[in-house]
Amino acid sequence: MAAPRPPPAPCPPCVTRAASRTACSSSRSCASSASDMKVNTARFMALYAWYSWPNVVLCFFGGFLIDRVFGIRLGTVIFSIFVCVGQVIFALGALVNAFWLMEVGRFIFGIGGESLAVAQNTYAVSWFKGKELNLVFGLQLSMARIGSTVNMNIMGWIYSRVQDLLGHTGHATLGLTLLIGGITCLFSLACALILAYLDKRAEKLLCKEQGKTGEVIKLTDVKNFSLSLWLIFVICVCYYAAVFPFIGLGKVFFIEKFQFSSQEASAINSVVYIISAPMSPVFGILVDKVGKNIIWVLCAVITTLASHIMLAFTFWNPWIAMCLLGVAYSLLACALWPMVAFVVPEHQLGTAYGFMQSIQNLGLAVIAIAAGMILDTRGYLFLEVFFSACVSLSLVAVVMLYFVNHLTGGDLNWSAKKREKLQKVAANEKEI
Length: 432
Hints:
76% of the residues lie in helices and 0% in strands. By secondary structure, the protein is mostly helical. The protein has a single domain (17-431), classed as Up-down Bundle (Growth Hormone, Chain: A), CATH 1.20.1250.20. Helix 6 (133-166) packs antiparallel against helix 11, helix 6 packs antiparallel against helix 12 (271-290) and helix 9 runs parallel beside helix 16 (349-377). It is globular and about 75 Å long.
């Protein structure tokens, strides 16, 4: 089974100058200034939520559709088409100044986005199982983060060029910018078609079967989930709720509080993904070699909390806090998600990971809307306190997980050497 990964931040490509232009002179909210679409922060953040809503359900059925209905090759192409269509509708919504159409586009984009990640993992397992699979997954995550970084730093420049071409700002400028950005979605579709051809050819030449996700989803398994697994779910939801929505609103935050230019704000806002790209494979190897997953998660959560506190209550150089956040985010992804496999039987892994991704998307959708409302009514200080509270809940869950694991004799915090030794003993006893 392909190892699940945290979903990418549901960041619409309109986090550009069009979004940063909503920054107003008041420190309380960006909603009092007209943006290209004339929406407040709460409605803007709803675009994140519309990406997450379909994945509350599709996390359970994406693997089933790939395994039993479409097959990996056709499934990848279909999900890529959903992404392309969603992006085009999203851009057309801006072009004709219809925000509801942009929301429809984000919903369709979300239908394809997360399921496409499942298909990608399935291809990786099919081609690399038994040889450098962990490295391949690390590279996949790195490429995703590089894409997010490029998006954050180049879309503002594209918007400026379109503005110079048209001679004015407004929804039409934003719409054309988003259509240009959609070229990457077409490139993704082209890659899906090429990959389907190569995989079909390999099936004929090498007698290779189509890849399978291996995800067996049985919702009745939920009632058998242990307390440790529920605590892992809480850690996941509360932690990512304080990362992805913050990055979505971060650009205007750095412009308002630290008086950064639009380009500087984009650069610092993307540093989390810049750090994650090279560090994710490194931390993956480190956690594999050392073990002690709970300790690594605890370090990541504490570092993230310190980062949010620094951003909320100090005027220290924000590069320090954002670099810390980038390191912590990379470390948590490598240490948290593998723990699921330690606390549930193999036949329940599909259900456990599906449920984890489902409630993560539900949490991100709700928190994104809440963050927009807080920013509109209370300002950035209250928003940062809100994010700090989310991380604090995650910290409480990590501490509880440590003690529950210790009292029940769980293996979540074993060293890699101890885990390997006991696995060998168990294997020898099975042979006897």
